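Appendix B. One record, verbatim.
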Amino acid sequence: MKARPIGVTIFAGLFALNVVFYVVLAVLAAFNHSALVAVLHALSPSGAGPEAIHTAMGHFQPFYYAAMAVITGALAVGFWRLRNWARIIVLGMIELSLLLMVAEIRPLLTTLTAGAIALTLVRVALSVLGLWYFFRRPVRNAFRRNLAPATGV
């Protein structure tokens, strides 16, 4: 049995918690939209965060959050079972997040606040740290499958 790095175990747990968070957001989107807007606003100081994108979804929000609950649940299982597809998907998500943060720089510069700047810096730092961690050799090796040797006839 392959040893699971502690960071991968932590990520699996965080993905499992994310499922709960997305289910709560889906319920809020379906039954108490004003509370959802308040939560999104609290997560996005001065507009530096997901508030604008999420509120633009309109009536699609409950379906988006339900789909994200399923996806993060699959990622939690993938990380727990050390499936390389889960690592590759997360690497792609991190890279996409970094690219989307570039688009948020212009609105950030128009409304400079300490909270928005701090949130953006934390998001960039966590993304770069995540890329570094998942590209480390011990982590890559943990996700590699032990393929059975091919038998020739």
